[in-house]
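Bit of a strange request maybe. I'm writing a small parser for structure token strings and I need a real example to test against, not something I typed by hand. Could someone generate the tokens for this chain?
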Amino acid sequence: MRRLHPGEAVTEADHRAWLDYQTAHLSEKRFVVLETGETLAGYVQYSVSGGVLTVEELEIAPGWQNGVALRSLLRALPELLPDGVQTVTAYIHKDNRRSRRLAERLGLRSAGETASGQSLRYTAARSNFRL
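Reply from user aminoacidic:
Good idea to test on real output. This should exercise your parser:
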């Protein structure tokens, strides 16, 4: 994460909890990586379970946040929505206004806080999810 967000303050405990979860659920994860040459411009990590596609992480490197990288990742989303998906969900940090606005433009609506209270869960029926 520090490669994409060099100034981000991540505690050791948060990183450990994230890493433990990722390791335990690695077989469920799917990734779309956006590279330009040898540069990682961004990625989206998601999982699909029980008719729900959950966007777990969407990261765009600072030099690519002008919209081109984001639009490229979003163009890949229709392929990520398998036929059985009925709901799209995303978890967004409360302070990340840009991501919250993007989620709302995509048709997702806030459905409450996470257990930690640091993030909001956004959700939309597949029919309301728009690109």
